[in-house]
Amino acid sequence: MEGKYRVGRNNILLNILVTFFYLKILLIYEIQMSKDLLLDLFEKVNRKQIFDEELFSFLELIFPGKSANVLDVLTKGIKKYIYKPSNRIVWAAMGKKKEHLVYPRIFCSCQDFYKTVVVYKKRNFCKHILAQIISEALNRFKTIELDDNKFKEFVRDLKLHL
């Protein structure tokens, strides 16, 4: 991993302390924790303007065992489509084979979100939602302006892939 996503492994003690600190914070959150955690993640990344080891540890606590997947999505890229003249905004994250529609902090069109979040309720968000939040906080996403009539095509293509 390069640039803003590089994570070193040289300060294990600091990682352990940070992990316990964030674990204590996590225990305080209740049912409403998902939106609070997502907002907290956004604010932490936005304030630092770099995704460092401390933030990686926090991400690992809120998305155990899947943090590297979030970094993979960030590497593939996040897109912000702005449709003109309505100024409708649509966020998209690249999956393994196709783009997924992301409503920030609320919804993703990927299968993992549907199965793990909606059906089985094992998690509150997917890797695409987390990647979108991080990319927005770092202001590292591709902005694409399109005509409003292209929005219908986007929705049609999305339906074909669901």
Write the topology of this structure.
Blueprint: H1 12-28, H2 33-48, H3 53-62, H4 67-76, E1 78-84, E2 88-94, E3 99-103, E4 107-108, H5 111-119, H6 127-138, E5 142-147, H7 149-161
Parallel strand pairs: 1-5
Antiparallel strand pairs: 1-2, 2-3, 3-4
**How big is the Rg?**
17 Å
Distance between the termini: 31 Å
Q: What letter string, H or E per element, gives the SSE order?
A: HHHHEEEEHHEH
Structural class: alpha+beta
Structural summary, described in words:
This protein has 162 residues and is an alpha+beta fold. It has one domain. The protein contains 7 helices and 5 strands. It has helices spanning 12-28, 33-48, 53-62, 67-76, 111-119, 127-138, 149-161; strands at 78-84, 88-94, 99-103, 107-108, 142-147. β2 and β3 form a beta hairpin. It is globular and about 55 Å long. The chain starts with 11 loop residues before the first helix and ends with a helix.
Please name the defining characteristics of this protein:
five-stranded mixed sheet, alpha+beta, 162 residues, 54% helix, 7 helices
In short:
The protein is an alpha+beta fold.
